[in-house]
């Protein structure tokens, strides 16, 4: 890119940044006014308005492009090479409960590394390097030499076991073996969940979940006080904490009337539980393995016993690779299911549901939807000169799909890939609901029904 082109592009980005920043400031001021005026209803605090969500995306995408233009390319590539160490540093901080240790620190003085070390047991001169790595990203802050405090970002970890476990989930070992699997002439063609980078890293033929169950049996607790399986299952709910409020608000659940929702492979039914709290006309059947349903019943008894007492939720053992036994439900919910599986298995799952659908049934797929840098007519396009998918603001979806590939030979999918799966299954994509979070809702209907 010539200096003139870079100059023009940077000026355009600065205009976008200025406009987005003004919108963000206006929205923040409005939020403060709503809090002060108790007569106005307060929406879920983690859900931004549509205007704020869009301004954030534009701002982040523009910042990403500014870095690309301004940063020396060789230095930028070097930073990417070493970026895995940032995740490693966060994992150390999470396991050591650094955020909890700093929660009682004086916000001006901070807590000395000596005192932090006394409470967590990590050698001080090593821990200080870990924390400084994270301070550069404002995850923690160093108030004076070797004294640290929480920031608004690290404060999210305080007392939050789910998020702490999510930050501690070990994926780096598997991702380090991704290139070995991709360059293997046999494994590069495989779609089996038993021939992934995960198996290469841990020298096993078991799938991820089989392995976690195996190593958790009779194993002692980790430094987190939990077995490996507990860490993963608890950590995964942290993502749901971010997604659930917008999934409840950005799809027209309230317009459906009385409905039966089948939560297929729903685990403990976390998504259904949140929906049940918001929409009293919805009834639910949670389908999963029997051992999972035991946990599910306990979760509902603890978190929403009224739904159990009212008969609004039932639990049914079911394998989604077999025929769906609940015929004619209003909604079949597939939350974070399809991304675990290659196309052929996804078609099997969808066909089983298609055969159970009545004319007006719908399948709601909750997953990341990959919006590529070339754009898609099914997705909102960012304003120029941003990349059509908002660039850096959409980067998480691209890394998430690599995670699915690394662990399962699965993938997050583009709108076009979802449409292809639907067509092979006797279905059609009606709409992709772009929620104000990391996951979207893709609505599928029977292909033989004219809407």
From TrEMBL:
Give the InterPro entries listed for this entry: COMT-like, COMT_C, COMT_dimerisation, SAM-dependent_MTases_sf, WH-like_DNA-bd_sf, WH_DNA-bd_sf
Q: Tell me the superkingdom of the source.
A: Eukaryota
Q: Name one GO molecular function term.
A: O-methyltransferase activity
Q: Which residues belong to any copy of the O-methyltransferase dimerisation domain?
A: 80-158
- Protein's GO biological process: methylation
Q: Name one Pfam family in it.
A: Dimerisation
| Start and end residues of each O-methyltransferase C-terminal domain | 261-427
Q: Which UniProt keywords apply?
A: Methyltransferase, S-adenosyl-L-methionine, Transferase
Name-wise, this protein is S-adenosyl-L-methionine-dependent methyltransferase
Q: Which organism is it from?
A: Wolfiporia cocos (strain MD-104) (Brown rot fungus)
């Amino acid at each position: 890119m010539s200096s003139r082109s870079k100059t023009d592009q940077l000026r355009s980005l600065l205009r976008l940044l200025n406009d987005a920043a003004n919108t963000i400031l206006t929205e923040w001021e409005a939020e403060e006014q709503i809090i002060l005026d108790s007569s106005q209803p307060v929406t879920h605090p983690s859900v931004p308005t549509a205007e704020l969500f869009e301004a954030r995306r534009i701002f982040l995408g523009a910042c990403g492009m500014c870095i690309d233009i301004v940063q020396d390319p060789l230095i930028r590539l070097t930073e990417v090479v070493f970026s895995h160490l940032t995740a490693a540093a966060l994992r150390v901080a999470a396991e050591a409960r650094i955020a909890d240790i700093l929660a009682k620190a004086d916000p001006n003085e901070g807590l000395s590394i000596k005192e932090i070390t006394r409470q967590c047991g990590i050698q001080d001169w090593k821990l200080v390097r870990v924390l400084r790595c994270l301070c550069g990203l404002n995850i923690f802050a160093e108030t004076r030499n070797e004294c640290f405090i929480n920031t608004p970002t690290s404060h999210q970890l305080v007392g939050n076991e789910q998020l702490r476990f999510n930050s501690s989930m070990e994926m780096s070992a598997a991702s380090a073996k991704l290139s070995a699997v991709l360059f293997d002439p046999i494994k590069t063609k495989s779609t089996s969940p038993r021939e992934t980078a995960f198996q290469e890293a841990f020298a096993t033929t078991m799938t991820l979940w089989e392995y976690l169950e195996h190593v958790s049996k009779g194993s002692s607790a980790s430094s987190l006080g939990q077995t490996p399986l507990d860490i993963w299952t608890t950590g995964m709910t942290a993502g749901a904490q971010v997604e659930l409020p917008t999934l409840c608000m950005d799809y027209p659940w309230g317009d459906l009337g009385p409905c039966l929702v089948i939560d297929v492979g729903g685990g403990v039914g976390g998504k259904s539980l949140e929906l049940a709290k918001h929409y009293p006309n919805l009834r639910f059947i949670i389908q999963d393995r029997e051992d999972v349903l035991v946990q599910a019943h306990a979760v509902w008894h603890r978190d929403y016993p009224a739904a159990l007492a009212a008969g609004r939720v039932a639990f049914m053992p079911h394998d989604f690779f077999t025929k769906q036994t609940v015929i004619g439900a209003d909604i079949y919910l597939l939350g974070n299911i399809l991304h675990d599986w290659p196309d052929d298995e996804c078609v099997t799952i969808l066909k089983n549901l298609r055969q159970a659908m009545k004319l007006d049934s719908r399948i709601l797929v909750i997953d990341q939807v990959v919006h590529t840098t070339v754009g898609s007519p099914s997705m909102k396009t960012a304003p120029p000169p941003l990349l059509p998918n908002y660039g850096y603001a959409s980067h998480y979806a691209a890394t998430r799909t690599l995670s699915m590939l690394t662990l399962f030979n699965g993938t997050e999918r583009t709108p076009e890939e979802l449409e292809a799966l639907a067509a092979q299954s006797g279905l059609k994509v009606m709409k992709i609901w772009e929620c104000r979070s990391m996951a979207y809702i893709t609505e599928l209907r029977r292909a033989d029904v004219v809407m």
